[in-house]
Amino acid sequence: MGILKTPDRSQVLLANEHASVANLIANICVKLGFGQVQLAHNAGEAQEALRQVAFDLVLVDDNLSVPDMSQYVAGLRQIRGTERALIILLTTVMTSASATRLINAGIDAILLKPFSPEDLRTRLHLAGGQRRLAS
User: Fold this and answer.
1) Which domain holds residue 83?
2) Which residue from 10, 16, 72, 108 could staple onto 22, CB 3.0 to 4.6 Å apart?
3) How many domains does the chain have?
4) What pTM was computed for the model?
5) Is residue 133 in some structural domain?
6) pLDDT tens, 39-53?
């Protein structure tokens, strides 16, 4: 799993404002073997959770009500303990300019929705490998 701990002990934060979608994604994480999935129902809850727990993986859905996702991600990276976390943006559409801004802000990967459990697993392996190469 790249730089993630063994899946059964890893901590996942899922930031998504839509409960039904959040539960579906949380179930995918559980099926992939991740230990604990904590849900944050808005941007503020996600920030507070990151201040409390050192998560291994942070899945941020682009449906969060934030004015600028790049600035939001940059702010997440300023929270102590997030330097080791993989942060993946879940989105339905992405331009190359937006992707560049997000990567510069600290996002590790972008995953287009809808996605399968295997798509998420592959993205985790790729993002984890890129992090090791950059270290």
Assistant:
1) 7-127
2) 16
3) 1
4) 0.88
5) no
6) 999 999 999 999 999
